[in-house]
Amino acid sequence: MQCTFLFPLLAGAMVLGACVPQEQAGQADFDAYCAACHGVDARGNGPVSVDLNLNAPDLTLIAQRNGGEFPFTQVMSTIDGYTRADQHGSVMPEFGSLLDGPTVLVEYEGGIQTPTPEPLVSLAHYLESIQR
After folding, report:
1. I need a labelling partner for 72 at 20 to 30 A (CA). Which of 2, 34, 42, 50 fits?
2. H/E element holding 5?
3. Contact at 8 Å (CB) between 61 and 113?
4. DSSP strands (E only) in the chain
5. Which domain holds residue 34?
6. Residues 95, 98: Cα–Cα separation, whole Å
7. Rounded CA gap, 51 and 37, in Å?
8. Are 104 and 123 a contacting pair, CB within 8 Å?
9. Is residue 118 scored above 80 in pLDDT?
10. Could you give the CA distance from residue 116 to residue 61 in angstroms, rounded to a whole number?
11. Is 42 within 8 Å of 30 (Cβ atoms)?
């Protein structure tokens, strides 16, 4: 009888747990791959940027720079390097291969559902969550 009582509690905890890890995973990837240049607060003041005198953008103002809208797919393309492939001399490294993993469907422009690496999606969601 105790199992029938515990099962709904465990199932509920698993559902809640599934909601939290995406943002936590995105923040963990940000800390691992982005904070050195963009700073732990994502405002462009990371130690590498300061030491090399680089102007890393403030990632908390992406939506503000885009008329109040967070350009989700554009952010993912910038991170993975897809939109920067033709920009020789770009200081930002391509992170596409570092953010490979299981895929999730993401709706892109025109309503097209495209399999996209979950770590990349999680990182973009994290960046969206820290907009000011």
Report:
1. 50
2. helix 2-33
3. no
4. 103-108, 112-117
5. 2-129
6. 5
7. 10
8. no
9. yes
10. 24
11. yes
In this structure, the number of other CB atoms found within 10 A of the CB of residue 57 comes to: 16
Does residue 11 register a pLDDT over 80?
Answer: no
Q: Using CA of residue 88, residue 77, residue 91, residue 70, what is the dihedral sign?
A: positive
Q: Give the number of domains in the chain.
A: 1
CATH number of the domain to which 56 belongs: 1.10.760
Rounded to an integer, what distance in angstroms lies between the CA atom of residue 41 and that of residue 45? 8
For 25-50, what is the mean pLDDT?
A: 96
Place of tokens 């989700």: 72
d(CA 77, CA 4): 46
Tokens of 119: 């770590």
HSE (side-chain half, CA atoms, 13 Å) at 73: 12
Residue 56 · residue 38 · CB < 8 Å:
yes
